[in-house]
Automatic annotation (TrEMBL):
SUPFAM superfamilies: Duplicated hybrid motif. Signal peptide: none annotated. One of its GO terms (molecular function) is metalloendopeptidase activity. Gene3D superfamilies: Glucose Permease (Domain IIA). Residues 182-276 form the M23ase beta-sheet core domain. This is M23ase beta-sheet core domain-containing protein. CDD domains: M23_peptidase.
Length: 286
């Protein structure tokens, strides 16, 4: 926690005594230690939202929101971020500048094999080459999507499924033939046709069928937070549709590059893919 003291001194003619008020502006980071691929919640105490001009992580501006009665923000550290020190900068409207250094740790790299399903050509060099081309094309489309800084979500985020058993975790490297692919999401166990829920209030930025990612829905929740729901069997929403927390937006499936039915959930903060399960520990069900 970083503390910056501000002083108010009240005294004048006719007063028999003087009053000095001291309060501290603090920047808190939760968790205190985090690594590549992690989200972190920023909490600012000692000032109101109106006292703040801006908050930034390096050169990236961070949107502010109220959470549990405190001025807050959230930052996402991408898997490709270089480990080391990063700087949070808080600027107040009175010209005060407060900085806090935060250390980003290195994520241990683990690798596991993952084959190509027969429906996509099986484990052949040709199928592998085609799959990698599809990833490049589809990622280029997804990279054009943006999230609004204004919070659309309220209170907290819920899980995308009623059953939250994880079948494959975030952040490891999948070895497919001679190619390597970072798993930038969490896979939840789900039979085909399982209801998939909106994490909170938001707006649908994309719904379409890809070759690699299958049927996909992307929901913008504001505060630079977006969720990507992959391999669906059915999509129940339209582009630009407003959705409410808990609304069934689709059904899970095994479309695209999926060896078995499941829900793949990716969460991006300002374009950085982060660990969804750690996101839920920060802004999830309470």
């Amino acid at each position: 926690m970083y503390h910056f003291s501000r002083f108010i001194y009240i005294c004048g003619l006719g007063f028999l005594f003087c009053v000095t008020s001291v309060y501290a502006t603090s920047i808190g980071v939760t968790p205190a230690e985090f690594m590549q691929g992690d989200p972190a919640r920023i909490t600012i105490e000692g000032v109101s939202r109106d006292d703040i001009d801006s908050l930034s992580w390096g050169n990236t501006p961070l949107p502010l929101f109220e959470y549990e009665g405190k001025v807050s923000s959230i930052v996402g550290v991408d898997l490709s971020t270089r480990p080391g020190l990063s700087v949070l900068t808080l600027r107040l409207v009175d010209g005060t500048v407060i900085t806090k250094q935060v250390r980003v740790g290195s994520r241990k790299r683990t690798t596991a094999p993952l084959g190509i399903p027969d429906k996509m050509g099986g484990n052949t060099p040709t199928a592998e080459s085609n799959l990698m081309k599809m990833f490049v094309q589809e990622n280029a489309i997804l990279a054009q999507l943006t999230s609004t800084t204004t919070p659309l979500w309220h209170d907290s985020f819920q899980y995308p499924l009623s059953d939250t058993r994880v079948s494959d975790s975030f952040g490891y490297v999948r070895q497919t033939g001679a190619s390597t692919i970072f798993h930038r999401g969490t896979d939840f166990e789900a039979d085909i046709g399982t209801p998939v829920y909106a994490l909170s209030d938001g707006v649908v930025r994309l719904m379409r069928q890809f070759t690699a990612y299958g049927k996909i829905i992307v929901v913008d929740y504001g505060s630079n937070i977006s969720a990507y729901y992959l391999h669906l069997s059915q999509m129940n929403v339209r582009k630009d549709e407003l959705v409410e927390k808990g609304q069934v937006i689709g059904l899970s499936g095994d479309t695209g590059y999926a060896l078995s039915p499941h829900l793949h959930l990716s969460i991006k903060i300002h374009g950085a893919s982060i660990d969804p399960m750690k996101f839920f520990t920060l802004l999830g069900p309470r």
